[in-house]
Write a structure and sequence with these properties.
The chain has about 220 residues and is an alpha/beta fold. The chain has two domains: about 1-105, Rossmann fold; about 110-220, Zinc Finger, Delta Prime, domain 3. The protein is built from ten helices and five strands; from the N terminus they run E-H-E-H-E-H-E-H-E-H-H-H-H-H-H. It has helices at about 10-25, 40-50, 70-80, 95-100, 110-120, 125-140, 140-160, 170-180, 185-205, 215-220; strands spanning about 1-5, 30-35, 55-60, 85-90, 105. The chain is globular, with a radius of gyration of 21 Å.
Length: about 220
Amino acid sequence: MLIIHGDNQVESRQFLSSQIKSAKARDKEIIHLEGKNLDLEAIQTVLGTKSLLGRESLIVIENLLVKTASKSIIDYLNKTAPQNLIIWEEKELSQAKLKQIRAKAQLFKLPTIIFKFLDSVIPGNSRFSLQFLRQAINQSSAEGVFYMLARQVRYLIIANQLDKEGLTGLHPFQVQKIASQAKKFKLGELLTIHRKLLYIDWQQKTGQAPMDLAGQLDLLIASL
């Protein structure tokens, strides 16, 4: 049993994809489930079901532990110790949570410089933002930074329109910082950045980008 967790979702997703690709290469059946609404009976059924074709399987359950999983589920996983199970979590699990489950854990954590970069993205601050951007890319990846910037801009648009009330599911400290940052932008400025990010994403995915992703991010931040 393997647990993949951490706030660096780009790299954790890439790692999960590599595990799935490897399993497919060995002709394993892939069973992919969302775990938030799974109960013990459903998990027992999935883990206990044999393929009709006699193939081995790899079972991937996402976000099974993001909320407090029932003790019965954890006890069952510890008792059966399924070797064909990967649990992918979108956030970093606490050490207390990890100690409850006898499984190998792979953590993908974002470097702190990425958060410094995101906090620095305000109008007229491009010189400092560029410094943080380049450090963030060096310590992580352009793809990871792009994902986090796109998410931050979406949060800023929500906060700009709805203030703190629109930022549900975030830590209060994070909500306060985003709400404060959003006030430094006009809505039109945020929507322009969002459109540019969508265009960059389209160019990169269709092979029509004039430069690599790091270069496009550099130009975008320089324009702020």
